[in-house]
Amino acid sequence: xxxxxxxxxxxxxxxxxxxxxxxxxxxxxxxxxxxxxxxxxxxxxxxxxxxxxxxxxxxxxxxxxxxxxxxxxxxxxxxxxxxxxxxxxxxxxxxxxxxxxxxxxxxxxxxxxxxxxxxxxxxxxxxxxxxxxxxxxxxxxxxxxxxxxxxxxxxxxxxxx
Length: 161
Hints:
GO terms for molecular function: potassium channel activity; proton channel activity. It catalyses: K(+)(in) = K(+)(out). There is one protein chain. With 161 residues, the chain is mostly helical. It has one domain. It has nine helices and no strands. It has helices at 2-7, 11-37, 43-57, 59-68, 73-101, 106-111, 115-130, 135-149, 154-160. Helix 2 runs parallel beside helix 8 (135-149). It starts with a helix and ends with a helix.
């Protein structure tokens, strides 16, 4: 059983990786749906997309730091900050696409008031604050937001089907 005891210290790193991989998959799926619904991609939407990609590119760093420090408060908060800024970048990307397509477009109608997106941002803000008080509650909120988005955005999927 030496193999098992050797791997035990890596469990937090692995669990952090799984959560971050789930987030990358969620963004990948929803990004695909957005672009599938778009009729035109402008220069502004390309820059907004690059902005989103920047925050997504920080996932491995934040994941490694959080798991490597066994879920200490600061790395959990920074991880949440990266999740928060990726969500804000995604919201900007969506708004830029809607501005180019129009509010009556497939994307505009599907997104609507974006209650789910706004709730995600609020939960990230709450989780970042909780990281310094109840770190595991922050992780639970990060997982909850991931679960909210796990299925590709049906608002868009139903309109492009």
